[in-house]
Amino acid sequence: MLRYLELPPRPALAPYLECVWEVWDHRERALRGPERVVPDGCPELILHLADPFARRAGGRWAAQPRAFLAGPLTRPWLLRAGRRVRTLGLRFRPGATSAAFPVEMREARDRELPLGPLVGRAEAAALLRAVAAARTRPARFRAAQEWLQQRIGAKAAPRGDARPAVRLLIASRGRRRVADVARQLGWSRRRLERVFDRDVGLRPKLFARIVRLNAVLASLDAAERASAVDLALDAGYFDQAHLLRDFRALAGRRPRAGGDGDGELARNFTRPERLRVLLAGD
């Protein structure tokens, strides 16, 4: 059984990271079920310290790199853990990766970018060694965050990034019109789309759909569960059919309580407490 723990980042990294997390299993297992990871707009730095996960792509399972930046998703990913599992992740806030990595996020959309070409093979190897050598989970979290803090401190602060627009869309639960967001920031719509493409890796309208989807997922999993139609209207959907289309396209399933069919890891990514932190934007 996979076990999962996430913690808030250290204060200096809170503007850039949503959390740090680790998933592990003390036992080797030959067969594991697939995990469906739903888009949330958050890129992640992933370090596989044991066997890498595999991702279903083009009709086959392909092993992920040992260390990579996972870009924003426009559709669900199907993942499958290996025999031995110990994986650490740094989950970035949408639009915040430019502070650490010299890459435009459109290049990472629906992709894994190996860490070596991004930061240099020696630096990537040193990060993996430092985290793998740490004997405790807090020590691994500390080593990964120290590395990231050094990278951010060595880079110039990004200018004109997408984070103000990201905050406005998250605060509205994805309901605000893109043109209204651009107007409030004093930007043209074209500038907003260009900055989102560069820093978030998604078009602002798609990002708003993803935020609305995650707001609905948080509500569906709450104890006080309303009808699907009420949830659709509350989230800014026109009707239940509109809601169902987004669930099929972005979540890969119909909306239903508890995320039936998701794996042990994926359920942690869509649990209400985690999504409320994401939607709070803090």
Offer a few descriptive terms:
four-stranded antiparallel sheet, 282 residues, Jelly Rolls, 2 domains, globular, single chain
What would your notes on this structure say?
Helices cover 41% and strands 17% of the residues. It contains eleven helices and ten strands. The chain is globular, with a radius of gyration of 18 Å. The protein has helices at residues 115-119, 121-133, 137-154, 163-171, 178-185, 189-199, 204-220, 228-234, 240-251, 264-269, 272-280; strands at 3-7, 17-25, 35-37, 44-48, 54-57, 60-63, 67-70, 77-80, 85-92, 112-114. A hairpin with a 2-residue loop joins β5 (54-57) and β6. By secondary structure, it is an alpha+beta fold. It folds into two domains: 3-154, Jelly Rolls (Sandwich); 163-280, Arc Repressor Mutant, subunit A (Orthogonal Bundle). Strands 1-2-9-4-7-10 form a six-stranded antiparallel sheet.
CATH class of the largest domain, named Mainly Beta
User: Please, how many domains?
Assistant: 2
CATH architecture of the largest domain: Sandwich
Q: In sequence order, what are the helices and strands, one letter per element?
A: EEEEEEEEEEHHHHHHHHHHH
Write the CATH fold name of the largest domain: Jelly Rolls
Structural class: alpha+beta
Mean pLDDT: 83
The tally of helices reads 11
Topology:
Blueprint: E1 3-7, E2 17-25, E3 35-37, E4 44-48, E5 54-57, E6 60-63, E7 67-70, E8 77-80, E9 85-92, E10 112-114, H1 115-119, H2 121-133, H3 137-154, H4 163-171, H5 178-185, H6 189-199, H7 204-220, H8 228-234, H9 240-251, H10 264-269, H11 272-280
Antiparallel strand pairs: 1-2, 2-9, 3-8, 4-7, 4-9, 5-6, 5-8, 7-10
Helix pairs in contact: 2-3, 4-5, 7-11
